Amino acid sequence: MQKTESVKPKAESVKLKAESVKQKAIRADINTRVNSFLLLAFSVTLLAFSVKTAAQDSTALYIQQVLHPQEAEMRTQALARLAALQPPAAFPFLAAVSSSSLYLLDGRAVTTGSRSAGQDDRFPIYEVYPGQRQLKDEKGRPLLLPLSALQPVTASRPQRLQLAPLAAVLDMFSADAQKRAMAYSQQGAKGAAHADALRLALQTETDPLALRAGREAMYAVRLQRATDAAAARLLIDSLYQHNGDNATGILRNWAKKPGVPQEAAAYALQQAQRLDSHYAWMQRIQNLFSGVSLGSILILVSLGLAIVYGLAGIINMAHGEFLMIGAYTTYCMELLFTNVLQVQDANWFFIAALPASFVTAGLAGLLLERLVIRHLYARPLESLLATWGISLILIQAARTLFGDLTAVKLPGMLAGGWQVTPHLVLPWNRLFIILLTIVVVIALYGLLFRSRLGMQIRAVTQNRNMAACLGINTKRVDAVTFFIGSGLAGLAGCAMTLIGNVVPDMGQTYIVDSFLVVVTGGVGKLMGTIAAGLGIGIFSKVLEAFFQAVYGKVLILLGIMIFMQFRPRGLFPDKGRIAEN
Amino acid sequence: MLKAKSSSKLATLLFVLFFAVALPAGHWLGIVSVNTISLWGRYFCFAIAALGIDLVWGYTGIMSMCQAFFFCLGGYCMGMHLLLKATALQGQELPAFMVWNNITELPFFWQPFNGFVPALLLSLLVPAVVAFVIGYFVFKSRIKGVYMAIITQALALAMYLLFLRNETKLGGTNGLTNFKTLLGLDLYAPGVKVGLYFVAFGMLCLAYVACRKIVGSKFGKILQAIRDSEPRVGYTAYRVLHYKLAVFVAAAVLAGVAGMLYVPQTGIITPGRMDVKASVEMLMWVALGGRGRLKGAIIGALLVNCLYSFCTSLFPEGWLFILGLLYVLTVLYFDKGFLGLLELLFKAKRLKIAESIKQKAKSHQGGYKYSRQ
């Protein structure tokens, strides 16, 4: 065990003196050898050898002193020596010290890496001296341990401050890949200050993201040192092709530097320009993608609204609250799985929540239909007021039950994203929402156009009385339609938890938009709803990129009003002349 | 029939007497606090706006969900005037919120609001012009019914979001506040508050009489015809667009007047007054009081707001439950609103009286001749 940190400066300084005496002795020894002319060559080799071994030994010694100091002052001195000597093999160790994440595990000095998503409180473990390497368990998988299994070695703040001048270098040897990537980028931006350390760090780099940043930094450093235009051009091309995060900044800064060849500087600027336009395109694709995913949520919400309105002539202002119910169902599932069933894996609750939110919201819709809406068929304006009242009640009920703000943990399998190119990352959660929407649309299409129930729904939508005359149980059809419509909103709510918080009035933000979708798409039209939902979603995201969100919304509204001037019955109106009223 | 009419007249008279004489008298005798008076003054403003909604919705069948926006337009016009006066009184050049937002000179659209008369005219004109533009495009493309409700609702939302921004230079989320004087009179003096109460009540009576005239005229009859069957009115060569536009603008002006009177009494106007919720609530006043009856609109506005003040002070958590339940119950069971309910009760009573008279007559006759079964 470590000794308690009682301060004994004298003993320490005595030891240090002994140390320097020892070194002096070595030097004296060498001096005597130099006197001998014959042994010159031999002694030079010996000198190199002895200095090297001495350095290595002393590094190990100092590290032992940091890990197990006999007294606190000894650790201070050892760290000071290490900071002065800067032995590369000790960099990972020092990085762990300076970030206060040094631990002992069975006598070995280790540090923790960054947690990957989904793991709860267990970290990957890295041994830090000599060099850095990840520890594996007996099956060869990365070893994961909670912090409680490690014995912390804490250096005091003044002790760590001794390493501050080295911080830029040490970060390149951190066990945290993100930190390393950032340190590399800094090196690239600043120039050739620690080129050797950078090269050394890159030799053992394994993380792809950090490696990208590191390579770019390496190119940048070499570009700084490039003397002739041809070499510079080559490096500019490398930077351009490597397409890193800071490439434009590096190129522009370099071109501004005094003493850079005119032609090469112009070339650098030109390439930077090309990169910029490339990024702008990536940004546009990203915006388009966000638009599509926003559109998919709108579609999910509006589909239910559209079929219910088409069928029953009901303006259901409480439709947004089914979305809210779906979201809270997901939240409850998370609570159930983590607290009651003690499932550690954060994926299962979401898989269970998908059907659960559909069914819960559907049942709530069914109840609403039975109690209230049944009496309002074909009275759209009155139904608007009544369902608004219901939405007030539901929102207030949710607020009383769950409070003002909750959030659902992102399931581990949907964390992160699909990296198409380095500058275009499509988040898994948004991709999942798009996929979900596609599946739902196909299923709904099958239900409406390929099944008996769907035929009945369409018949009642077209002419309620005639359908009843032909023996269709319209009340049953109404109930089922309402169940499906509300369920779809619940599903949308479940999907919403992936990209936002769960708040009692979350449905309200979507209800006006989804009504606009229904109106633009034409009432009761599946295709129209899908087209309008995608259109409005994409437009609002694209407009947001140019204007601010609010102005985008105003513009969309104006666009819809102009659109309605030309097509008052929506995108895909019924053919033929249907008399008004 | 005669009896019913006279009883309704009596009720109206009592209503006017209560608010014009009894309540202020109560204040001067020290029974009613000045805050209560001011509160009722505000309710009258809401009632004026409700009258406009009744014209548009109850009589013409257009469900407009942006009346609160028109209300706020009137309110902001008056608020801008009051704020400029208050700033001048403090010896500053710009209202405080503009200084915070680094605006160096008064925006051009604030300039006309320095004078009282221009501000007064503008608070009528601005809602009218905006309503005209919106109405023209909406009615021209024959957007009606549900589509109309949704479009106007989205419009209200967009305007609400626009007014929330600081770039519109209208005070953003905080709105306009810190008013001091109106025409040189201190807004916080009890006398001025009572005066404003009287102005609001007078305006309400005036608006009611004007609306009654409109509804009774040929114009009003055509409005009701449009409500009952719009195509037929069109077929008989009336320009439906013109009528709808006229009534839409009239309602907007009424809402503007209401907003204009509301602001000096409340001392603040924020975008929160114009969100979608506010518009739906205004519709609810009319539905609750009795749609298609001018008195119903007034009663509904006063009733809901009284209830609001009462409930929020007693159990703030429960107010939304009560309001929601009121919405549902009104629509489901009291289609004709509070006024309809009253009439139903009176009718039942009258029927009972008639029945009992008949019974008495029967017993006098001996009851042997007819037995209606």
Automatic annotation (TrEMBL), chain A:
<keyword id="KW-0029">Amino-acid transport</keyword>
<keyword id="KW-0472">Membrane</keyword>
<feature type="transmembrane region" description="Helical">
    <location>
        <begin position="431"/>
        <end position="449"/>
    </location>
</feature>
<keyword id="KW-1003">Cell membrane</keyword>
<feature type="transmembrane region" description="Helical">
    <location>
        <begin position="515"/>
        <end position="539"/>
    </location>
</feature>
<dbReference type="GO" id="GO:0022857">
    <property type="term" value="F:transmembrane transporter activity"/>
</dbReference>
<feature type="transmembrane region" description="Helical">
    <location>
        <begin position="480"/>
        <end position="503"/>
    </location>
</feature>
<dbReference type="InterPro" id="IPR001851">
    <property type="entry name" value="ABC_transp_permease"/>
</dbReference>
<comment type="similarity">
    <text>Belongs to the binding-protein-dependent transport system permease family. LivHM subfamily.</text>
</comment>
<feature type="transmembrane region" description="Helical">
    <location>
        <begin position="380"/>
        <end position="402"/>
    </location>
</feature>
<dbReference type="GO" id="GO:0005886">
    <property type="term" value="C:plasma membrane"/>
</dbReference>
<keyword id="KW-0813">Transport</keyword>
<feature type="transmembrane region" description="Helical">
    <location>
        <begin position="292"/>
        <end position="315"/>
    </location>
</feature>
<feature type="transmembrane region" description="Helical">
    <location>
        <begin position="546"/>
        <end position="566"/>
    </location>
</feature>
<dbReference type="Pfam" id="PF02653">
    <property type="entry name" value="BPD_transp_2"/>
</dbReference>
<dbReference type="GO" id="GO:0006865">
    <property type="term" value="P:amino acid transport"/>
</dbReference>
<protein>
    <submittedName>
        <fullName>Amino acid/amide ABC transporter membrane protein 1, HAAT family (TC 3.A.1.4.-)</fullName>
    </submittedName>
</protein>
<keyword id="KW-1133">Transmembrane helix</keyword>
<feature type="transmembrane region" description="Helical">
    <location>
        <begin position="348"/>
        <end position="368"/>
    </location>
</feature>
<keyword id="KW-0812">Transmembrane</keyword>
<dbReference type="InterPro" id="IPR017779">
    <property type="entry name" value="ABC_UrtB_bac"/>
</dbReference>
<dbReference type="InterPro" id="IPR052157">
    <property type="entry name" value="BCAA_transport_permease"/>
</dbReference>
TrEMBL record, chain B:
<feature type="transmembrane region" description="Helical">
    <location>
        <begin position="194"/>
        <end position="211"/>
    </location>
</feature>
<keyword id="KW-1133">Transmembrane helix</keyword>
<dbReference type="InterPro" id="IPR017778">
    <property type="entry name" value="ABC_transptr_urea_perm_UrtC"/>
</dbReference>
<feature type="transmembrane region" description="Helical">
    <location>
        <begin position="116"/>
        <end position="139"/>
    </location>
</feature>
<feature type="transmembrane region" description="Helical">
    <location>
        <begin position="40"/>
        <end position="59"/>
    </location>
</feature>
<feature type="transmembrane region" description="Helical">
    <location>
        <begin position="245"/>
        <end position="263"/>
    </location>
</feature>
<keyword id="KW-0472">Membrane</keyword>
<feature type="transmembrane region" description="Helical">
    <location>
        <begin position="146"/>
        <end position="164"/>
    </location>
</feature>
<dbReference type="InterPro" id="IPR001851">
    <property type="entry name" value="ABC_transp_permease"/>
</dbReference>
<dbReference type="GO" id="GO:0015658">
    <property type="term" value="F:branched-chain amino acid transmembrane transporter activity"/>
</dbReference>
<feature type="transmembrane region" description="Helical">
    <location>
        <begin position="319"/>
        <end position="342"/>
    </location>
</feature>
<dbReference type="GO" id="GO:0005886">
    <property type="term" value="C:plasma membrane"/>
</dbReference>
<protein>
    <submittedName>
        <fullName>Amino acid/amide ABC transporter membrane protein 2 (HAAT family)</fullName>
    </submittedName>
</protein>
<feature type="transmembrane region" description="Helical">
    <location>
        <begin position="66"/>
        <end position="84"/>
    </location>
</feature>
<keyword id="KW-1003">Cell membrane</keyword>
<keyword id="KW-0812">Transmembrane</keyword>
<dbReference type="Pfam" id="PF02653">
    <property type="entry name" value="BPD_transp_2"/>
</dbReference>
<dbReference type="InterPro" id="IPR043428">
    <property type="entry name" value="LivM-like"/>
</dbReference>
